[in-house]
Structures are given as structure tokens and as C-alpha cells.
Write a structure and sequence with these properties.
Strand content: 5-15%
Structural class: alpha/beta
Helix content: 40-55%
Largest sheet: 4 strands, parallel
CATH topology of the largest domain: Rossmann fold
Shape: globular
CATH class of the largest domain: Alpha Beta
Strand order of the largest sheet: 5-4-6-7
Number of strands: 7
Distance between the termini: 25 Å
Number of domains: 2
CATH architecture of the largest domain: 3-Layer(aba) Sandwich
Order of helices and strands: HEHEHHEHHEHEHHEHEH
Number of helices: 11
Radius of gyration: 18 Å
Length: 250
């Protein structure tokens, strides 16, 4: 991923504080992807990798349930976690949960360090693909809160209601460790999306990290964008830009 001039001007600093735990496996996958991308870009010592502070915010209320009007507000919990990471020495922040970006503006108001807006970064990737329409697989909360509509200019196409339910079931199956069934559910929704007539010439975003962690096992004839890969690409590019010319001296 090549950062635009605007993105480079907004480069994050390190240590990077990560609000994780939503979902638990998703942040583990992100860290794996980040390590692989940095290593394949030339790192060969531990000190060639960025300093990271991870907070597993597993006790925050469900983001999607709140946005669906079925649970407690998670916002203050995420603000508390962001402030804790700042106090621990983080110089910038990110969060792996897409649904939590519904409160991104409220979090950034309460901390004194920059925070990656993953939706903004994904929107840049979509623009690079020049897709006029984009199918998005995400949580019910993200659909209801219209978090994607705030950033994407392309026409957004969500699964039909019964397939959105199938997607939610897949996420629940994944959290229970039933990966095979979860992947089967995800692929069924992708098949549904790509066979819609209005999706011709479009692309698909795996817009929930609990879906994106299986990006290599989700098949489509359309371009697929995994939000976890996009985040790992962005952090890797920021780190390599900061480290440029220093690797041989470390």
C-alpha cells in the first residue's frame, strides 16, 4: 500500500496503542499480519519492529448491541481505555473493531494523541480500486449507525436481511470456535452479494474484523478488501517511513 501525500502528512507515531479485544482473535490476526508485512519489507531484528501497547478491552459492552438499541453504551469504556494507553506512553492509537468507530469522534476528543480512523484508510483503498459500488459485510450495529456512509463515496450495498442474519450467525459461530461453519456462512453471504446484478464491476469489503480474519478463506470473483489487511498495511507503511534509512544502523 502506497500512502498518499495527505496520508503521509498524517503519519502516526510510535509506540502505537491498540484498543483490542473486539474481537479477541481479530487483534491477534492483526498483529500477525503486521509482523509478516514488516518482516517481508526488510526487518531482520526485533528492533526493526514497532513498539506496541495492547489493551484487550474485553469488558466493554457490545458495540453492535448498543447501536442496535439492545445493550449498554460502550463509549465511556473505550475512552477510559484510550486514556490508559496514553498514560502508558502510547503516542498514537488505533482500534481494530470497525463497529466501535461509531464513537471515534468522541474518543479522539478525550485524548491528546492522534488515532487512526480505519474507516478513512479503508475508504482510500476503495477509492484506489475505483469501484462505483461496494458490497459491505459488517455487523448489524455498523449498518444501523451508517458508519460506512460517513466515509465512502461509492454506492454501498448491504446483504439482504436474511443474509445479514446469516452473517451475524457466522460471527457468533466464529466466537464459539466453530470456524468451518463460520466460513461457510461468510462465503454464502459473499455469493449472495456478488450475484446481485447491481454489483457488477464492484468490490467487497470484509468490514468486520471477526469476518476479515478469514480473508484468505473467503472466495469471490470480485476484489476483496480486508479491513485487517488494510490496517496492517497502513501501520507497516507508517513505521517503514519513520524507520527509512535507519535499519542498517539498528
Amino acid at each position: 500500500m502506497q500512502l498518499s501525500k495527505t496520508a503521509i502528512e498524517k503519519l502516526i507515531d510510535f509506540p502505537l496503542g491498540i484498543i483490542g479485544g473486539a474481537g479477541v482473535r481479530a487483534v491477534n490476526r492483526f498483529l500477525y499480519l503486521l509482523e509478516r508485512k514488516i518482516t517481508t519489507s526488510g526487518a531482520f531484528r526485533d528492533c526493526h519492529h514497532p513498539e506496541i501497547i495492547l489493551y484487550g478491552a474485553t469488558q466493554a459492552p457490545s458495540r453492535s448491541m448498543f447501536l442496535e438499541g439492545k445493550g449498554e453504551d460502550f463509549t465511556q469504556n473505550y475512552i477510559n481505555v484510550a486514556q490508559s494507553l496514553e498514560k502508558c506512553g502510547a503516542k498514537s492509537l488505533c482500534m481494530t473493531c470497525i463497529t466501535a468507530h461509531a464513537c471515534w469522534d468522541k474518543i479522539i476528543e478525550k485524548v491528546g494523541i492522534p488515532m487512526i480512523n480505519l474507516l478513512d484508510v479503508v475508504a482510500q483503498r476503495i477509492a484506489d480500486l475505483d469501484c462505483e459500488r461496494i458490497g459491505i459485510l459488517c455487523s448489524n450495529g455498523s449498518v444501523i449507525a451508517k458508519v460506512w456512509e460517513r466515509y465512502i463515496c461509492a454506492r454501498i450495498i448491504y446483504p439482504a436481511a436474511d443474509f445479514q442474519d446469516l452473517l451475524t450467525t457466522g460471527i457468533c459461530l466464529m466466537k464459539k470456535g466453530n470456524d468451518e461453519s463460520a466460513i461457510s456462512h461468510y462465503n454464502a453471504v459473499v455469493d449472495h452479494i456478488e450475484n446481485l446484478q447491481e454489483m457488477r464491476g464492484g468490490g467487497i469489503v470484509l468490514g468486520c474484523t471477526d469476518i476479515a480474519l478469514f480473508s484468505s478463506q473467503i472466495k469471490s470473483g470480485l476484489p476483496i478488501i480486508s479491513v485487517l489487511d488494510v490496517l496492517a498495511d497502513y501501520v507497516c507503511e507508517c513505521w517503514n517511513t519513520r524507520l527509512k534509512g535507519k535499519v542498517g544502523n539498528l
